[in-house]
Amino acid sequence: MSQTLDTYPRMKYRPTTTKEIDKIIKSLKAKHSYGCNEISTKVPEISSSLLYISLNYIFNRAVSKGIFPGGLKLTVIKPLYEKGNKLDNV
């Protein structure tokens, strides 16, 4: 069963606004930890007035072209231990 891209419905896309990006940045919880990019969540919060225009362009461009930067595809999964010794299951 071979399907082409033409058989899938087109995704409706509404570009995000700089106001939305600024609101999201300001809603981030400030933590002392770092992500895979080694940037604390405090940095975007402090510099949101400098970042939101560029981030808005990057996000809208990525979605409209369907090409996402590799860094946006990364995640770290960490188990949460509720009780017992963390090393018991190693």
Q: Can you give me a brief rundown of this structure?
A:
By secondary structure, this protein is mainly α. It has helices at residues 18-27, 42-46, 48-65. Helix 1 (18-27) packs across helix 3.
Question: What's the topology here?
Answer:
Elements lengths: L17 H10 L14 H5 L1 H18 L25
Helix pairs in contact: 1-3
Descriptive notes:
The protein is mainly alpha-helical and 90 residues long. It has one domain. It has helices spanning 18-27, 42-46, 48-65. The mean pLDDT is 77.
Give the fraction of residues assigned to helices: 25-40%
Question: What is the straight-line distance between the termini?
Answer: 43 Å
Put simply, the count of helices is: 3
**What fraction of residues sit in β-strands?**
under 5%
Main beta sheet? none
User: What count of domains describes the coordinates?
Assistant: 1
Order of helices and strands: HHH
Low-pLDDT sequence parts: none
Structural class: mainly alpha
CA radius of gyration is 19 Å
Whole-number average pLDDT?
77
**How many β-strand stretches?**
0
Which features does this protein show?
3 helices; 0% strand; 90 residues; 37% helix; mainly alpha
